[in-house]
Specification:
Elements lengths: L4 H21 L7 H14 L5 E4 L5 H8 L4 E5 L2 H10 L5 E3 L12 E7 L10 H11 E12 L5 E6 L2 E7 L4 H10 L4 E7 L13 E7 L6 H4 L2
Parallel strand pairs: 1-2, 1-4, 2-3, 4-5
Antiparallel strand pairs: 5-9, 6-7, 8-9
Helix pairs in contact: 1-4
Length: about 230
């Protein structure tokens, strides 16, 4: 199968910025209490349900945070450069190169899955395929967390952290993403919408959203199917 252009450009862009990205965002979670609360809630929901995958894990900072919360978590990222940085920074954790469009994981093998601002590079037309893949690898009863920027128009970057890149950030409305999750068999259980943050070292110009959804337990999927 031919690799989509956005996959190639996203991989190359994050390979280019991997080291600079790790330096810039290493301490970001410490400044984000609402995000830490969402991750803590997800960790409690996913505890004891099986392995958890951090899809689009980047430099592994969220993977390590979830590990610190007691989850048996591993990371997958499209960028070999990001995975190399993650392995160096967190040698006790597992990181692999892979694509969320075709995860190298067995059906129903995960107790939980998180995509922390990683679906933002997926065009609207491919997002249902990604969510279907998330449903495939989640075990019945497993939870998924998506974090993304809120908006209606994509943002394009030709430069980031001092490096040339080709990156599109697809901002989306939480209600639309919730609808797509439901269609994929992953009804939403909780939503967090945070306003833009213009203070501190990690300012943001747009609202941010977190959705936590669940693949219904066996026996409930037929009843809950869209």
């Amino acid at each position: 199968m031919t690799e989509p252009d956005f996959v190639r450009t996203t991989r190359a862009s994050y390979d280019a910025v991997a080291a600079a990205y790790a330096d810039r965002f290493r301490d970001e979670l410490a400044a984000k209490p609402f995000e830490r609360a969402a991750l803590a809630a997800f960790a409690e929901l996913a505890a004891g349900t099986g392995p958890v995958a951090d899809i689009g894990c980047g430099t592994g900072r969220v993977t390590a945070h979830l590990h610190g919360l007691g989850l048996p978590v591993f990371g997958i990222d499209l960028s070999p450069g990001m995975v190399a940085v993650a392995r160096d920074a967190h040698p006790g954790l597992r990181f692999e190169v892979g694509s969320m469009l075709a995860l190298d994981l067995p059906d129903a093998s995960l107790g939980g899955l998180i995509a922390w601002y990683s679906t933002v590079h997926v065009p609207d037309g491919q997002l249902p395929d990604v969510l279907a893949e998330f449903h495939r690898v989640l075990a019945p009863g497993g939870h998924v967390l998506l974090a993304f920027q809120v908006g209606d128009e994509p943002r394009h970057l030709d430069e980031a952290l001092g490096h040339p890149v080709t990156l599109d950030f697809h901002r989306r409305r939480p209600e639309r993403v919730a609808e797509l999750l439901h269609r994929a068999g992953l009804p939403v259980r909780a939503r967090l919408l945070r306003e833009p943050d213009d203070h501190g070292d990690f300012t943001e110009l747009t609202p941010q959203a977190v959705l936590i959804a669940r693949r219904p337990p066996t026996g409930d999927e037929a009843r809950d199917a869209p």
